[in-house]
Specification:
161 residues, mainly alpha, 7 helices, 78% helix, 0% strand, globular
Length: 161
């Protein structure tokens, strides 16, 4: 569906016939594109309907992480986990900067609460849903990156940015 938008056939096909690598690239591109589009659309809606992006971020972010990014986990769990945490960070920054509503200390507190809630559920989704593919080292990587990102967000929260 989205695979034919602006992609040269050389990226998707090798030679004259389809290969598994070409189909995999198409699925990866679609997953990244659909995930980014959902984040952008939800944050645009959150700008015009202020509580939308704040109170539904845990739903749409975990749909992206648990369902849409499934082809990415098959390529590399570590890179996909880092990418998912990056998307969580970008989504939080978009909510803080562009969401409608009051941007006082109570609003920042709600943003922090919903981010931590979303981060916790996303970490559980990445660990439990893909438990068969994970080792203890990968589980620790997910938790360490999650704690680091939460610490960075909390530090920016305290700086009143």
């Amino acid at each position: 569906m989205f695979g034919q938008i602006g992609i040269s056939s050389r990226l998707l096909f090798s030679g004259s016939s389809r290969s598994n690598y070409g189909i995999m690239n198409k699925n990866i591109f679609n997953a990244i594109l659909i995930g980014c589009l959902i984040i952008i659309i939800c944050n645009i809606l959150g700008h015009y309907v202020p509580p939308f992006s704040l109170f539904t971020c845990w739903i749409y972010m975990n749909i992206i992480i648990g369902v849409i990014h499934l082809p990415l986990y098959k390529v590399s769990f570590k890179l996909t986990s880092a990418y998912n945490f990056f998307l969580l960070l970008i989504n939080d920054l978009l909510i803080r900067n562009y969401a409608g509503g009051e941007h006082d200390s109570a609003g920042k507190g709600w943003c922090l609460l919903m981010f931590v809630f979303t981060l916790f559920i996303a970490s559980v989704v990445m660990i439990v849903y893909f438990k068969k593919e994970l080792s203890i080292k990968s589980n620790m990587l997910v938790m360490i990156v999650g704690v680091l990102i939460t610490s960075i967000i909390y530090w920016f929260y305290n700086l009143h940015i």
